[in-house]
Specification:
Elements (H helix, E strand, L loop, with lengths): L1 H25 L8 E2 L8 E4 L2 E4 L6 E3 L8 E4 L2 E4 L6 E3 L8 E4 L2 E4 L2
Antiparallel strand pairs: 1-3, 2-3, 4-6, 5-6, 7-9, 8-9
Length: 110
C-alpha cells in the first residue's frame, strides 16, 4: 500500500502536465496554412507557385476582405493573426454555429 502512495505525487505531476498541455492546445492560435496567392504574401510566408506558403515562424492569415477582423492586422493582401487571435474566415452568408460576425469575417467564439 505504501508503494502506491509513494507513486501518487509523480502521477499527480504527470496528470497536471497532461491537463496543461490539453488546455494550451484548446486556446492555441490557429495554425498557418498555405493560401492562394493574390498580390503580395503576408509576413512569414513566401511565394510557391500560385500560393503563399507559411515559413517556420508564420502566423495564421486570411485573405483581406474590407477591414481585418478583431485580433488581425493587415499584411500585404491578407490579414495576419496577432498573438491570441481567434480563428477567422471570410464571411459568406451567415456565420456558422460557434462564430460571430466581425466586419466581413466570421470569428470563432473560442
Amino acid at each position: 500500500m505504501s508503494h502506491v502512495l509513494r507513486r501518487r505525487p509523480a502521477f499527480a505531476r504527470g496528470l497536471a502536465a497532461a491537463l496543461a498541455l490539453c488546455s494550451a492546445s484548446l486556446f492555441a492560435q490557429p495554425a498557418p496554412v498555405a493560401l492562394a496567392k493574390t498580390g503580395s504574401c503576408p509576413s512569414g510566408y513566401s511565394t510557391s507557385g500560385n500560393y503563399c506558403a507559411p515559413g517556420s515562424g508564420a502566423r495564421f492569415a486570411v485573405p483581406k476582405v474590407g477591414s481585418c477582423p478583431s485580433g488581425y492586422s493587415t499584411s500585404g493582401d491578407y490579414c495576419l493573426a496577432s498573438a491570441g487571435a481567434k480563428h477567422a474566415m471570410p464571411k459568406t452568408g451567415s456565420c456558422p454555429s460557434g462564430y460571430s460576425t466581425s466586419g466581413d469575417y466570421c470569428l470563432s467564439s473560442r
